[in-house]
Amino acid sequence: MTVEAAATEFTDGSAQMTAADGAGPAPVRIVVAYGFWIFLLSDIIMFSALFATYAVLSGRTAGGPGPHDLFELRNVAIETLCLLFSSYTCGLGLLAVEQRRLKYFYVAFGVTFALGLSFLGLELAEFSRMIAAGAGPSRSAFLSAFFSLVGLHGVHITVGLTWIVFITAQVAVRGPLDFVLRRLRCFSLFWHALDIIWVALLSLVYLMGAR
Amino acid sequence: MHDSAKSRPVDRAPGADEDAPSGSILSYSVGFAFALLLTGASFLVSQTDVLWEPGVPVGLAVLAIAQMGVHLVFFFHLSSGPDNTNNVLALAFGVLIVTLVVSGSLWIMWHLNVNMMPASVIMEMQR
User: Fold this and answer.
1) Cα B101 from Cα B104, distance rounded (Å)
2) What is the SS3 assignment for B45?
3) pTM
4) Please, which residues 65-124 of chain B have a Cβ atom closer than 8 Å to chain A?
5) What ipTM was estimated for this complex?
6) b/e string for A174-198 if b means 16 or more Cβ within 10 A?
């Protein structure tokens, strides 16, 4: 049974699943978005453990390079712009497909993909530069925490990029059907959530570190 | 199962409103502008001395939380409407757990760090 079928059955079959104003069962898009929101919150709670680890260990450099020696804020600023702008184009793409303007959707999601890929490229370049300079994850507790936290965000971006490819192909093959739109809305929530995590990461890791 | 369900396409629930737009170009643009503004302010606060030096961490935290709020309202379309009650409650619970995990870890680890002496210091005291 697909998620959509399960969600339909759930909203059809249960009388207590009513909207707050008592107008009847909540629409499927509301139920699906709620379920995905719960997943995103659990993802954020997982990140919070790594944030706590980083906050505890950020001063434990074991005589190795510290945050101030390693971070290049110009690089980080470009990464931030890439993510923010890709979130914007992702939102515009979602609006375009809801209005059945598929050409705009392909352009917007193409830009989103390119910006996400640029972010990932910049991050990997930063990682390899640090590892080449002898500041790999095994150098100190600070660097272990740094690579786990920032690396996990990078893994999420990679998952998001794969998801963009699949969902765009689905729009191309199946057209803007209801279930495709719901998946697109879930993807857009996922992509925006990565922005929220990046905001925390930028402030705690990079801006506090490179002060 | 409702009788009216037969006349609907398979994956459309009663009251389904699949074509309701997810926000508008204006709301995304306003959110994007605010996000850029707050990010710029964060870089400014950390790289210049516009803020009193010991206040910089607090300033960065305030700006980051403000930006998360902007993202939630303009990108996630979180609102006080009836469709959003469950989402807001789940968010409140998430914020509670995140606060407990982060502040609890910092609190406990700080105390361990302060109160547990290195072995060499203990050996020194036992002489």
Assistant:
1) 5
2) helix
3) 0.84
4) 67-68, 71-72, 75-76, 82-83, 85-87, 90-91, 93-94, 97-98, 101-102, 104-106, 109
5) 0.82
6) eebebbbbbbbbbbbbbbbbbbbbb
